[in-house]
Amino acid sequence: MIIAVDGPTASGKGTIARALAAHFGLPHLDTGLLYRAVGRQVQLNGADPDDPEAALAACAFGNDLLDDAILRSEEVGGLASRVSVHPAVRRALYERQRAFALQAGGAVLDGRDIGTVIAPEAEVKLFVTASVAERARRRWQEMKARGIDVPLTAIERDIAARDARDMGREDAPLRPATDALVLDTTHLGREAAIEAAITAVLAKSARA
Ligand code: DC
Asked: Which residue's CA is minimally distant from atom 1 of ligand 1?
């Protein structure tokens, strides 16, 4: 079974994807991490993330980079969003994601275009979302817990900018697949959101 979990930044899609993978005993790939590695590699190369050739060259990042905690930073998230608009970058990362999706026994992948481009045949497609204000609040809380104090308004602005770029790009824009189940987590706690996702997968596989 392939489970595709797409959605905007800080929607809870990563948490839900990991929980689904653990619950159903499937391997999980956070595809955002690949784009983050490209963004970080561009930075290490001292290159411009908006330059398609420089971004493509950065797709040759070493696998060790995927374990670097710096990939989780807001700054690298922004760079990832910028390199991800280049079609050549998306093509370069395609095979790796596709092969992961097609492995025997199935997989859970989370990202922006899993249900639409990487695995359009996925048995279950979830589109996890929440309001900008709620996503900003969650991100703010997360950062505060790590000792980083950034004004909530600045986070809200960054999230809105990232949404606009991820949804507005020409190649594989962020949007729900026509057959995706939209899960709005604005008013759901972590456990309730996971529960709703598990129920959706079970309902879908019972129908298959
Ligand atoms: O999920 P994330 O915040 O780690 O993703 C970082 C950026 O990577 C996101 O703003 C857009 C890009 N991305 C993408 O274009 N396609 C994906 N499947 C995953 C991420």
From this structure: 32
